[in-house]
Specification:
mainly alpha, Cytochrome Bc1 Complex, Chain D, domain 2
Length: 148
């Protein structure tokens, strides 16, 4: 015969479930912290190169690039993924040339990237930032292809 579900049984299920998920949380936290050192490339953020990368991130944020592009899967999906743009273009000079060559009003008849009129320093900084991002070792090898 079926046994009635009592308060004691409910309490035991609650405490058991809480303990289980707390231990699971601790195990996953430990696993993540043990995997982080091999994914970390903070060495690139030191010295003048690091300052240029930080300036590039600032230019990225000021011009709201993430409003159209994705970066490592985060952002809007109107424009190509830029987590691998350095691999696609092959050099920072090509990235700078592409950004600088955008038409003033965009391409007529379609939504396209506008001309931001960035200085040479800002172009270099954003290109270095995108190069840095493309060299991040992601856990799932994101983005999955070089086309963006």
């Amino acid at each position: 015969m079926a046994q009635a579900f009592t308060k004691a049984m409910a309490r035991n299920i609650f405490y058991g479930g809480t303990a289980f998920f707390f231990l699971l949380f601790l195990a996953l936290t430990f696993q993540t912290h043990s995997a982080l050192p091999e994914l970390d490339n903070r060495n690139a953020l030191t010295g003048p190169q690091g300052e240029m990368i930080a300036k590039g991130k600032q230019v990225w944020e000021e011009n709201d690039c993430i409003g159209c592009h994705t970066l490592l899967g985060e952002g809007a999906y109107f424009a190509p993924e830029l987590g691998n743009v350095y691999k696609r273009f092959g050099s920072t000079d090509a990235i700078k040339g592409f950004i600088a060559s955008r038409p003033k009003d965009g391409v007529p008849g379609r939504r396209s990237m506008p001309q931001f009129n960035l200085s040479e320093e800002e172009l270099t900084a954003i290109a270095e930032f995108l190069k840095y991002v493309s060299e991040i070792k992601t856990a799932r090898n994101w983005p999955p292809n070089t086309q963006g």
